[in-house]
């Protein structure tokens, strides 16, 4: 495992900030995230913060480098670009696990950055698997 990141966002506070400073919508959210519900947008912001923490660099990446998408069955997953993707690759991250939740006016995101441990047989296609 590379790291774990957790973040919480107060939904009303985020909504108030977005109304007070409309440019924040374009800064914090990718185009596909902007039309979501307030709670879902807060979850996206929390997820972006959690990614930075899981990679050990909170606050060092562009908000546009991280997007939360959903599978056909509704499971959230992360798409990285730019400096965030380069950092993840440099750390050997092979998978990012994401959990999102919102309740009681707070959105929560947990990200686990995982790397697969390589063995000698991974690099040698002629090596036999242990029995």
Characterise this structure.
With 131 residues, the protein is an alpha+beta fold. It has one domain: 4'-phosphopantetheinyl transferase domain (Ribosomal Protein L22, Chain A), CATH 3.90.470. It is built from 5 helices and 5 strands. The longest helix is centred in the middle third of the chain and has 17 residues. It starts with a strand and ends in an 8-residue tail after the last helix.
Topology:
Blueprint: E1 3-10, H1 11-20, H2 23-28, H3 38-54, E2 66-70, E3 76-80, H4 82-90, E4 95-103, E5 106-114, H5 120-123
Antiparallel strand pairs: 1-5, 2-3, 4-5
Helix pairs in contact: 1-3
Short characterization:
By secondary structure, the protein is of the alpha+beta class.
Give keywords.
alpha+beta; Ribosomal Protein L22, Chain A; 5 helices; 27% strand; disordered C terminus
- The beta-strand count equals 5
Shape: globular
Helix share bin: 25-40%
Q: At the third CATH level, what is the topology name?
A: Ribosomal Protein L22, Chain A
Give the strand line-up of the largest sheet: 1-5-4
Assembly annotation: single chain
pLDDT averaged over residues: 89
Instruction: Assign the CATH class.
Output: Alpha Beta
- Spell out the helices and strands N to C: EHHHEEHEEH
What is the total number of structural domains? 1
Secondary structure tally, helices: 5
What is the rounded distance between the termini?
26 Å
Question: What profile does the largest beta sheet have?
Answer: 3 strands, antiparallel
Structural class: alpha+beta
CATH architecture, by name, is Alpha-Beta Complex
Radius of gyration: 17 Å
- Uncertain stretches of 5 or more adjacent residues: 124-131
Domain 4'-phosphopantetheinyl transferase: 3-89
Subcellular location: Cytoplasm
Function: Transfers the 4'-phosphopantetheine moiety from coenzyme A to a Ser of acyl-carrier-protein.
Family: Belongs to the P-Pant transferase superfamily. AcpS family.
């Amino acid at each position: 495992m590379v790291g774990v990141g957790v973040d919480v966002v107060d939904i009303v506070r985020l909504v108030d900030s977005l109304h007070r400073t409309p440019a924040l919508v374009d800064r914090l959210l990718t185009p596909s995230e902007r039309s979501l519900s307030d709670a879902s947008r807060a979850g996206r912001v929390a997820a972006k913060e959690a990614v930075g923490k899981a990679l050990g660099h909170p606050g060092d990446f562009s908000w546009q480098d991280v997007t939360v998408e959903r599978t056909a069955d509704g499971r959230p997953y992360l798409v990285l670009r730019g400096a965030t993707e380069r950092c993840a690759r440099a750390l050997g991250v092979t998978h990012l696990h994401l959990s999102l939740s919102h309740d009681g006016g707070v959105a929560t995101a947990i990200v686990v950055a995982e790397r697969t441990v390589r063995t000698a047989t991974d690099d040698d296609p002629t090596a036999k698997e242990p029995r």
